[in-house]
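Hi F.,

I've been meaning to write this up properly since the lab meeting, where we talked about keeping a consistent format for the predictions we share between groups. The idea is simple: the sequence comes first, exactly as it goes in, then the structure tokens exactly as they come out, then a line or two of notes. No screenshots and no reformatting. I'm using this chain as the first example so we have something concrete to point to.
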Amino acid sequence: MARNRGLTGQSIALVAVFAGLIAASTLVPEVTLIGGVPLTLQTFAIVLTGLLLGPWRALAAVSLYLVLGLVGAPIFANGAAGLVVLTGPTGGYLIGFVLAATVIGALAQLLARRGVLARRGTATASLIGIGLLSIPLVYAVGVPWLVWRTGMPMLPTGCSSITDIDCVSGLTVGVLPFIPGDILKVVVAGIVAAAIHRAYPGLLGSARRASSRVTDPEDEAARATA
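Output, unedited:
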């Protein structure tokens, strides 16, 4: 467990690899929706980063990705780069990525410490469950920022329905079009993360010890009565 603490070579490598994964996720062809919000695989990469690295390494990986993009690397959606992206309409989503990866990373680490990730039957569902929390966390920052930078209303007003193409608001532009895709990407990320945790049970540090406590209760009882 100790080898997973602190600034180790393994941690530095994982941070670099997952920062690269997030950058690579923007290279997949995307669809740009009304308001300039692009639909990419970043959600999948951000959620997977949090589920596998825990809070501090996930925070470092997403922060490294943002720093590289802000200093000029064309690794944001649509090959964009620079501070103008952060100050633009979609800048809030980037900040939301940092929050989401850190929070779900902390929850994934908690699952590992409690031995949940060692239970084959519940690990995948648990990881998907906490991964779904990334969606409201990203929107909580991204949508108000989008509304602020574009001047559109938060909620649709004067529209026959929220699916009306002329009904432009933070909700219809920054949330509703993404929900189905985001849920699908989180589910896939949870499945992939569960498989990786099974292959590398010590990835979040305390998984091995937690697993032994949970899966061998009879051994513990036998030692207590010996």
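Notes:
The longest helix spans residues 42-70.
The two ends are 28 Å apart (CA to CA).

If this format works for you, I'll send the rest the same way.

G.
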